[in-house]
Design goal:
Blueprint: H1 5-9, E1 23-27, H2 53-66, E2 70-74, H3 84-93, E3 97-102, H4 115-122, E4 125-129, H5 135-142, H6 146-159, E5 171-175, H7 186-201, E6 207-210, H8 217-226, H9 229-236
């Protein structure tokens, strides 16, 4: 895999200015049940790096000490962490809003049969990866069968009240391009998603987030291999 860090350290992008800290995003580990080309942490089934219990305890202490209002859990598949559920319970007991960056197929994994019910019980906000409403496009990006499992996961969440008006359970979807391009306008794409998923699968959700791929790890390495890294950086700028 090509190292993209040297290509990113020297940049004329505007500097980032720190403001008040209210959201803590925590990567619980690189193990995942999927292995996606665009993954910015190179996660997959063969990765073994996972956050240990002592560090999770520290996260809980930071939530208390800094009075953080939102805990954003990611991975890999964050739900594969042995500490995921106790961290969620501890954060919710502190009144912290919890976001689970969910790939949807994890809801069908052995041992995760009660995961959706747990998320609903704790009032966790689900932000779910759904790169398209077309089966072919999703499977091309994430692997054969991923679309069907994703639909099953969304239907399972809907049945628990996620994405349903006045339920208090938020279900947001995430779109990202399959190649070195920018996403289309978010509002129009959200309308397309809502129409297609409701018409064909009876699925409802709250909002769609259109994200741009980061030029690091697998995706960045692919750009380097194809000689398009510099072009993509200019596109981002």
């Amino acid at each position: 895999m090509h190292d993209t860090l040297p290509l990113l350290t020297a940049t004329d992008f505007p500097a980032i200015r720190r403001q008040a800290l209210n959201t803590l995003q925590v990567n619980l580990g690189y193990r995942c049940n999927q292995s996606c080309l665009h993954c910015h942490v190179n996660a997959g089934p063969n990765r073994t790096e996972m956050m240990d219990g002592a560090t999770v305890d520290l996260v809980i202490e930071v939530l208390k000490a800094r009075r953080i209002t939102t805990l954003d859990l990611t991975g890999g598949a964050p739900e594969l962490s042995e500490h995921f559920r106790r961290l969620v319970v501890a954060a919710r007991a502190l009144g912290v809003e919890v976001i689970d960056r969910c790939n949807l197929t994890i809801l069908s994994e052995p041992g995760q049969e009660d995961l959706a019910a747990f998320l609903a019980e704790q009032g966790v906000q689900v932000v779910a990866s759904m790169p398209c409403y077309s089966p072919a496009n999703v499977d091309r990006q994430r692997g054969d069968g991923v679309f069907d499992l994703s639909i099953t996961g969304l239907q399972q969440l809907n049945a628990l009240g996620y994405g349903v008006p006045d339920s208090g359970l938020t279900l947001n979807l995430v779109y990202n391009p399959q190649g070195p391009s920018l996403p289309p306008p978010q509002a129009a794409l959200e309308a397309d998603y809502k129409r297609e998923l409701l018409q064909h699968f009876g699925i409802r959700f709250n909002h769609l987030f259109a994200l741009t791929n980061m030029p690091v790890q697998r995706f960045g390495s692919t750009l380097v291999s194809k000689g398009t890294f510099g072009t993509y950086m200019q596109l981002l700028k």
